[in-house]
Amino acid sequence: MKKSNLAFIARNKLRFFIGMGFFGVFISVFNFLTFAKVWSGTFEYYGIPPTFVYIAVPILLVLGCWYSGFWYEMNKLWELEVSHLNTNVNPEFIALIETVDRLETTVNRLETKINELQEKLP
Q1: pTM for the full model?
Q2: How far out from the chain centre does Cα 91 lie?
Q3: CA–CA separation, 120 vs 30, rounded Å?
């Protein structure tokens, strides 16, 4: 497959997945509310008011999603994921790091030469 076709697929997959992340919340809430309506008779049988389920489930879903993201970040899993992507998947990042290393070496050599020249000045 041509690189331009692969780039097209990758770019649009990324856009789709980002969009699905946002829509996923709404789809999940809708599914849970549908579930609550279908099972409302069962909830009433067990003494659970359906209105409570309609309110509590979406709130718990959003809070649960937020907390799992927070946990993922606080346990440095996000950091490890990005590090893996940068060092094993993204060749552009590796080339950028090599460029930065060369720049640091050049800057260090220039600083050394500047210091040597300043010492020679009266």
Answers
A1: 0.59
A2: 19
A3: 77
